[in-house]
Amino acid sequence: MMVGKDQDLGLSLSLSSSQNHHLLQLNLSPSLVPSSANQCYSPSGIFPRTKQALLSLIYPNTESLRAETRSFLKGIDVNRLPSTVDCEEEAGVSSPNSTISSSLSGKRSEREGNNNGDELEIERASSHGISDEEDGDTSRKKLRLSKDQSAILEECFKEHNTLNPKQKLALAKQLGLRPRQVEVWFQNRRARTKLKQTEVDCEFLKRCCENLTEENRRLQKEVQELRALKLSPQFYMQMNPPTTLTMCPSCERVGVPQNASSAVDPRSHHQLVQSRQPRHITINPWAPSAPIPHRPFDALHPRS
DNA sequence: TATATAGGCGTAGTTACCTCA
DNA sequence: CCTGAGGTAACTACGCCTATA
């Protein structure tokens, strides 16, 4: 199945091309709006075994990466968890319920409100990468993901914009983050992607509207010109008499006679159809025209 | 088999913190 | 140094789906 996977704005929005006029795919990132929360999971095992392996994919020039990372990490890397957390991850303590901190929120807090408060404190403290004594107050410190962490997360997001628990754990371990942090990052990333996609779509529709307005204006003008011509006597002088067409009663195809006196003989057209008389149709150029076939988004392609 | 419930995960919206001009 | 704007990690509330009793 071709799911228009949205990667960094992966616009599956096929804008006009001269070849596929009518093919407007305003793909609103279906992958972002899963019909079911559980349908987005992709096959596991997407991540390189080591961060270095993955980073080497992202940054073929590993030396430049290291330099970049070094320069960036000159400051304090608040995201580096205390070793205890790594141990915790190693031991898989968080795996049974990777959403310990998420249990703080929403419905889960109602349902799982019996969480151990101490655990939560530890969770909070470790998530901030600071010691307990520094985190006496309940205010949340804003942590910043390092550049390489973000790069890895981005890379994984390109692969799959949702993670199954296994992938989440693996990635968290790889990055030295808590699964909850990875989860939140993916949530926020999806939200950002969707927001940008919405902006792009909005811009696109705005252009559609402008083009349609322009097309409408042009057609109105054309109508006016034709009306003016109709009123002009000279126009009648130049006009041919109303065209006489003959419609074949069998296939209902309309034939234009070579000259006015000889309409198409339906018998020569369809030997078998002899009982029905051809219908003559007088074309009135000023009669309301047949409905114009709908050309969706034709106005998107302004005539050059 | 139908139903209630719990749990997991998703999104939308918001808050709080950090960075930078 | 102060400040406002923008970016983003984290949180809250709620809906949907699935497994299970």
UniProtKB/TrEMBL annotation:
Q: Name one GO cellular component term.
A: nucleus
CDD domains to which the protein is assigned, alphabetical: homeodomain
Q: Which UniProt keywords apply?
A: Coiled coil, DNA-binding, Homeobox, Nucleus, Transcription, Transcription regulation
UniProt region (Disordered), positions on chain: 87-141
Q: Name one GO molecular function term.
A: DNA-binding transcription factor activity, RNA polymerase II-specific
Matching entries from SUPFAM superfamilies are given as: Homeodomain-like
- Coiled-coil spans in chain: 195-232
Q: What Gene3D superfamilies does the record point to?
A: Homeodomain-like
Segments of the chain annotated as binding DNA: 138-197
Subcellular location field: Nucleus
Q: Output compositional bias ranges, type Low complexity.
A: 94-105
Domain of life from the UniProt record: Eukaryota
**Occurrences of domain Homeobox (ranges):** 136-196
Q: Spell out the family assignment given in the record's similarity comment.
A: Belongs to the HD-ZIP homeobox family. Class II subfamily.
Q: What is this protein called?
A: Homeobox domain-containing protein
Q: What is the lineage of its organism?
A: Eukaryota, Viridiplantae, Streptophyta, Embryophyta, Tracheophyta
